Amino acid sequence: MTPQATVYVSSTCPYCTMMTNYLDEQKIPYETVNVSVDQEAGKRLVKTTGQMGVPQTKLNDVWILGFDPEGVQKALRGEAQ
């Protein structure tokens, strides 16, 4: 199964860049949603996860908060956070 990821980022977040760079290194395809630009997406994100920080990554239906390479690997293995 090909991993499916969505990364919620902001324009000024260094950890967001670290997360997308890590996904690139791991060759994991992802979609980026910039909550600085799309404020409605940001509101939906907070409603869904209860968290306001970024990056937040949804990978194979697992939410990963922050830059968390171990969390990415667990999601790839199908382990819950």
TrEMBL record:
Signal peptide: none annotated. This is Glutaredoxin family protein. CDD domains: NrdH. PANTHER family: GLUTAREDOXIN (PTHR34386), GLUTAREDOXIN-LIKE PROTEIN NRDH (PTHR34386:SF1). It comes from Sporosarcina gallistercoris. The lineage of its organism: Bacteria, Bacillati, Bacillota, Bacilli, Bacillales. Residues 6-62 form the Glutaredoxin domain. Transmembrane segments: none annotated. Pfam families: Glutaredoxin. InterPro entries: Glutaredoxin, Grx-like_ET, Thioredoxin-like_sf.
